[in-house]
Write a structure and sequence with these properties.
- By secondary structure, the protein is of the alpha/beta class.
- It has a domain of about 180 residues: Vaccinia Virus protein VP39 (Rossmann fold).
- Helices cover about 40% and strands about 20% of the residues.
- It contains ten helices and nine strands.
- Helix 4 crosses helix 5 and helix 8 packs antiparallel against helix 9.
- A hairpin with a 2-residue loop joins strand 1 and strand 2.
- It has a seven-stranded mixed β-sheet with strand order 5-4-3-6-7-9-8, sandwiched between helices.
């Protein structure tokens, strides 16, 4: 995690009791390791970097079929409006001009399908997701949409040539990668000059009182609701904790700039519960 990790959240580095619901192999990865070894964050836990992807994969294997429900619980249903805002800011062409979108960590197709609905006949989209379960859920949802294709791949090593896409989107996915800088670098690499980067992610609430209310709701109610509705409080607890570990808006802006992007801006959504980051490869 970058050095600008939200320091106020370093207060809890212990394993959460909810993680006891994970598989035996995953729990082995969460055992204390040599403190001299590099660590990655898995929620509030610190794990070996090479172990994190497997842990994240197990979480998304569990939530894939209920992904929209998960986002509804995490955002109070607001994620649908936030994704519409992403599409509006992206402003895909409505003509027959070729326009290639890469939607990373977009498994269920929620963002990509919105973009294609708003775009013209020349637009196409590729969803790249590391989770086979999420891709399967997306295929079911997309039906026979001819302009949409799916590729299984890691955001840190995208299986595409340089300068391939006109736009790169990632919604609620980048906080789950092991090396954020590597994922941003890959996003820059696969974009054409003049290409657009848009990232929608849960962020740091900047409105007094709302921050306290959302913190209480997310840390207590969301795992409980996940257990009640989906029978899986542990995965929901990880997802909440991963938000707390993610860099705040200004820090993430610096990471995007360091990857080579220009004209980097962000918009807070619902007081900063989420933020939409925009940048260009020029």
């Amino acid at each position: 995690m970058p050095q600008c990790e939200r320091s106020s959240l370093r207060r809890n580095n212990s394993l959460n009791p909810g993680l006891a619901l994970l598989s035996a192999s995953v729990k082995e990865d969460l055992k204390p390791q040599d403190t001299a070894q590099p660590k990655a964050s898995f929620g509030f836990a610190r794990v070996r970097p090479e172990a994190k992807q497997g842990l994240v994969n197990e979480v998304f294997a569990k939530v894939a079929r209920r992904y929209d429900l998960m986002n509804d619980l995490m955002s109070g249903g607001l994620h649908r409006l936030w994704k519409d805002e992403l599409v509006t800011w992206l402003a895909p062409p409505k003509s027959a001009v070729p326009y290639a979108l890469l939607d990373v960590a977009g498994g269920t197709g929620d963002v990509a399908l919105r973009v294609l609905e708003a775009a013209g006949s020349g637009s196409s989209a590729v969803i790249c997701d590391v989770s086979a379960d999420m891709i399967e859920a997306g295929r079911v949802r997309a039906g026979e949409e001819p302009r949409l294709s799916f590729v299984q791949g890691n955001a840190e090593a995208l299986p595409f040539p340089d300068r391939r896409f006109d736009a790169y989107t990632i919604g609620f996915g980048i906080r789950n990668v092991t090396h954020i800088e590597a994922a941003l670098g890959e996003g820059f690499r696969v974009l054409k000059p003049g290409g657009r980067f848009l990232c929608l992610e849960f962020s740091a609430v900047e409105v007094p009182l709302l921050d306290t209310l959302y913190d209480a709701y997310s840390m207590n109610a969301i795992p409980a609701l996940g257990g009640l509705v989906a029978g899986d409080s542990a995965s929901y607890r990880y997802l909440v904790e991963s938000i707390r570990r993610f860099p705040d808006q200004k820090c993430f802006t610096h990471l995007i700039e360091n990857a080579g992007f220009e004209r980097v801006h962000y918009r807070n959504l619902t007081g900063g519960i989420a933020a939409l980051h925009s940048a260009w490869r020029l």
